[in-house]
Write a structure and sequence with these properties.
Helix content is about 40%, strand content about 20%. With about 300 residues, it is α/β, with parallel strands linked by helices. The longest helix is centred in the first third of the chain and has 15 residues, at about 5-20.
């Protein structure tokens, strides 16, 4: 599965469910994908293309969900979230209509398309709404699993799908229900989410960092009980994300720790305008952009090592 994108792994899994359940519907805002093309061709009555009209996609998806359909609204991430905030707030947060929002290309996935297509604010914005769960996909195994998990009725789920291809980290039978993955044990912990999980995992392996543990936090709001158990006994914690620090994953970690009176030193690493590059939004390849913000592999290695060695 590691040779395909998270998007195709997700839609391949969704295809199998749509084959068995005619209530599974995809609402697309003029977006396609190899796996989704097969879905559209084989299940034409279960696919709706609303055109380049993301706000309408959320409204139609919510309306279909009210009739008993299990609806997946799919588009480029910044447009299916930030462009649709009022629709999501009213239909899915206030009214509690459950849909699955599938956002393609989070972080700097669409690096060459510029800041309009980058998405480094959405965790902060979307986690402010009640009744919405954010899943930041890590690999294709997780992507396929969450096609099934998010399909179950309940609350609205927002899936953050990365555009790049990554190796698989999780075994095919992994239980994703607790919202975190314990990837490596150690007294000093690095907590990551999304594509940063792969970068930090490679750093720990390549540098053979002693006593550095690694947790993949892929669900927000954080499932507090397993999270608190996972960080128990840690000396120091570093959080790493491809997102603005304000309101991001690191902020969610600090909130849970504060609310549960857990006193462990935490350093947040993300897009921080207090250091490094001073421009909020930049152009360039993904690694160039990351280096500007100090979240590329070289910068992260130095920051993590320096913090843990203090």
């Amino acid at each position: 599965m590691s040779k395909m994108t998270q998007r195709d792994a997700f839609f391949q899994s969704l295809y199998q469910m749509a084959k068995e359940d005619k209530n599974v519907v995809v609402v697309s805002a003029d977006m396609s994908a190899p796996a989704l093309d097969k879905f559209r061709e084989d299940f034409p009555t279960q696919f709706v293309n609303v055109g380049i009209a993301e706000q309408n996609a959320i409204q139609i998806a919510s309306g279909l969900a009210m009739t008993g359909k299990k609806v997946f609204a799919y588009a480029i991430s910044p447009f299916i979230t930030l462009r649709c905030l009022e629709q999501i707030r009213v239909s899915n947060a206030i009214m509690g209509i459950p849909i699955v929002i599938v956002g393609m290309g989070t972080g700097f996935s669409y690096c060459n398309d510029g800041p309009t297509h980058h998405l480094i604010e959405d965790i902060a914005v979307m986690r402010a709404f009640p009744k919405i769960k954010i899943i930041n996909l890590t690999d294709n195994v997780m992507a396929a699993a969450f096609a099934t998990i998010s399909y179950k009725p309940g609350q609205t789920t927002y899936l953050r799908v990365d555009k790049d291809i990554y190796s698989d980290i999780y075994p095919i039978d992994y239980d994703f229900s607790i919202g975190i993955g314990k990837l490596h044990a150690g007294k000093n912990l690095v907590i990551t989410t999304g594509p940063m999980t792969h970068i930090v995992r490679d750093i720990i392996q390549a540098k053979n960092l002693k006593d550095v543990g690694h947790i993949d936090l892929f669900e927000i709001p954080i499932n507090e009980a397993p999270f608190i158990d996972a960080i128990k006994g840690a000396k120091k914690i570093v959080t790493v994300e491809e997102h603005f620090l304000a309101g991001g994953m690191g902020s969610a970690v600090l909130e849970v720790m504060n609310d549960n009176c857990i006193n462990i030193p935490v350093k947040r690493i993300g897009i921080n305008l207090k250091e490094g590059y001073k421009n909020c939004y930049v152009y360039g390849g993904r690694n160039i952009i990351r280096s500007c913000y100090g979240i590329d592999s070289k910068s992260l290695t130095k920051k993590v090592q320096n913090y843990f060695e203090k």
